[in-house]
Design goal:
- By secondary structure, the chain is of the alpha/beta class.
- It has one domain: NagB/RpiA/CoA transferase-like (Rossmann fold), CATH 3.40.50.
- The protein contains six helices and twelve strands.
- The chain has a six-stranded parallel sheet with strand order 1-12-7-4-2-3, sandwiched between helices. Strands 8-5-6-9 form a four-stranded mixed sheet.
- The N and C termini lie far apart (66 Å).
- One of its GO terms (molecular function) is L-lactate dehydrogenase (NAD+) activity.
- It comes from Streptomyces coelicolor (strain ATCC BAA-471 / A3(2) / M145).
- This is LUD domain-containing protein.
- Pfam families: LUD_dom (PF02589).
- InterPro entries: FTHF_cligase-like_sf, LUD_dom, NagB/RpiA_transferase-like.
């Protein structure tokens, strides 16, 4: 008998006296928790997102659509970025003012190749105000998950207020669970037993979030 068979056998024995529940999952699991904490206007929700992003040590910027190309140029120049990964569906005008070499998101790219790229610019699927979380789902303006995990600098553009929700339940309603979801709350960081914080271990060391308004 293999280890797999032994483990599954133990699971079956443990569940032997558990009655079958024919109710669908949506009915079997109670949904009585608060969907949102407090009452906020749209502007206050966006402000809360900015506050919580900054609390997680993300760098937050605000601009209009017309100002975005120049802002991205400035942010990449400030980092000294000579190369930037570009997802296939990123709006072309976003990087119209950027001089850095474009690196296309390709299935053939290796982690070593991506590690040599200075920055990545993406859109997002949704942003959660109460937790300061950015969610990526692999859509064309976000690209493959690895392009946002390997380069050391990630600029994420969030369209406000359309892509901002108050809470995690609100975000889950918008997301497809079958897609590759990446939940980002600030730059990648970890702490050892002495609580010494080290950033850039599991992803970008620097996260910059641009809150993009339409006017």
């Amino acid at each position: 008998m293999s280890s797999r068979e032994r483990i599954l056998g133990r699971v079956r024995r443990a569940l032997a006296d558990v009655p079958d529940d024919a109710r669908p999952y949506e009915e079997a699991v109670a949904r009585e928790y608060l969907r949102e904490h407090g009452q906020r206007s749209v502007a206050q929700t966006v402000d809360l997102l900015a506050e919580n992003l900054a609390d997680y040590r993300a760098l937050v910027h605000r601009c209009t659509d017309g100002e975005l190309p120049v802002l991205l140029m400035r942010l990449l120049a400030a980092r000294g970025s000579r190369s930037v990964v570009v997802p296939p569906g990123l709006p072309p005008h976003w990087l119209a003012a950027v001089d850095a070499t474009r690196v296309h998101d390709r299935a053939a790219s290796t982690p070593q190749e991506l590690d040599g790229v200075d920055s990545v610019v993406t859109g997002c699927a949704v942003a959660v105000a109460e937790t300061g979380t950015i969610v990526l789902d692999g859509s064309p303006d976000q690209g493959r998950r690895r392009i946002t995990l390997v380069p050391d600098h990630h600029i994420c553009v969030v369209r406000v207020p359309d892509q901002v929700v108050s809470s995690v339940p609100g975000a889950l309603e918008r997301l497809d669970p079958a897609r590759p979801l990446t939940w980002i709350s600030g730059p990648s960081a970890t702490s050892d037993i002495e609580l010494d914080r080290v950033e850039g271990v599991h992803g970008p060391r620097t996260l910059e979030v641009v809150l993009l308004s339409g006017s």
